């Protein structure tokens, strides 16, 4: 079984982002970019399936500018077999990403696709669900455990107030939650080996997909600055402030 893992190049989770002065978005100049953390979890899970003899090949795919090839190299350095870059400088919204992934899946025929539950830049949490709908495939979202057996996969899902297990027929779409696994670090020898692994390049035009945006960003604002803390003299004063100033009790 081939496993396809879509990996997005996003602002590194350690970066304190700055909003552009004109409010049109986030400033990406000289900002460290990395693989979306939920996608690292997806790559890790695919590699574990391969190591357990349940997957034969792990293919990483990224949609984005030429630099998204670096994100693919990170996946290859973790252990993925090859990469596919769908090159575009345009902004691609979840529906466009899902349509492009559907086209890639049509060429690759994977048995399983593991996406992140959300990309930490736009927090859309939409692509996996849209892809499952476009393909008519079963979906197991917010996965915290996977068990592949024969032509089925059991997915433990993190839902409000507990865990739910669903059994899906393969091929299926999975989206990862934080607790699914802890991704490995790429070792130096594997980083060197990854340089020789193949990355195929294609484009939205070659895949015949219209990626015209449908959403308009009205404005982007910084969160309000936190006010300095205040020292209180007694519990009674604290309760009074919580009740009458903060209005939280
Ligand atoms: P989102 O719906 O944008 O929050 O993204 C959910 C997941 O879809 C991500 O964790 C990735 O696995 C995948 N994805 C979204 N955008 C891209 C992209 N440009 N390239 C590759 N995968 C993507």
Automatic annotation (TrEMBL):
Pfam families: ETF
Keywords (A to Z) from UniProt: Electron transport, Transport
Domain of life: Bacteria
SMART domains xrefs: ETF
Keyword DNA damage: no
GO molecular function, one term: electron transfer activity
GO annotation, biological process: carboxylic acid catabolic process
InterPro entries: ET-Flavoprotein_bsu_CS, ETF_a/b_N, ETF_b, ETF_beta_N, Rossmann-like_a/b/a_fold
Gene3D superfamilies, alphabetized: HUPs (3.40.50.620)
Residue intervals of the Electron transfer flavoprotein alpha/beta-subunit N-terminal domain: 23-211
Cofactor: AMP
UniProt subunit comment: Heterodimer of an alpha and a beta subunit.
Function: The electron transfer flavoprotein serves as a specific electron acceptor for other dehydrogenases. It transfers the electrons to the main respiratory chain via ETF-ubiquinone oxidoreductase (ETF dehydrogenase).
Family to which the UniProt record says this protein belongs: Belongs to the ETF beta-subunit/FixA family.
Protein name: Electron transfer flavoprotein subunit beta
Organism: Labrys okinawensis
Lineage: Bacteria, Pseudomonadati, Pseudomonadota, Alphaproteobacteria, Hyphomicrobiales
């Amino acid at each position: 079984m081939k496993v396809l893992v879509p990996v997005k190049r996003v602002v590194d989770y350690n970066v304190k982002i700055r909003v552009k002065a004109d409010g049109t978005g986030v400033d990406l100049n000289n900002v460290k970019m990395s693989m979306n953390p939920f996608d690292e979890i997806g790559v890790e899970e695919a590699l574990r399936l391969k190591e357990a003899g349940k997957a034969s090949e792990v293919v990483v795919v990224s949609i984005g500018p030429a630099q998204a090839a670096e994100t693919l190299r990170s996946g290859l350095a973790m252990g993925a077999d090859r990469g596919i870059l769908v090159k575009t400088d345009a902004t691609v919204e979840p529906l466009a990403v899902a349509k492009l992934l559907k086209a890639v899946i049509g060429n690759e025929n994977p048995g399983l696709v593991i996406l992140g539950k959300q990309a930490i830049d736009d927090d859309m949490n939409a692509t996996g669900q849209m892809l499952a709908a476009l393909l008519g495939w079963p979906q197991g979202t917010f996965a915290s455990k996977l068990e592949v057996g024969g032509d089925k996969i059991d997915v433990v899902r993190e839902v409000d107030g507990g865990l739910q297990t669903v059994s899906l027929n393969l091929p299926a779409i999975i989206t990862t939650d934080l607790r699914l696994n802890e991704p490995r670090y790429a070792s130096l020898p594997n980083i060197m080996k990854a340089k020789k692994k193949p990355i195929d390049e294609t484009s939205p035009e070659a895949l015949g997909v219209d990626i015209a945006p449908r959403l308009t960003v009205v404005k982007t604002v910084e969160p309000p600055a936190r006010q300095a803390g205040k020292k209180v003299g007694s519990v009674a004063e604290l309760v009074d402030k919580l009740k009458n100033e903060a209005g939280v009790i």
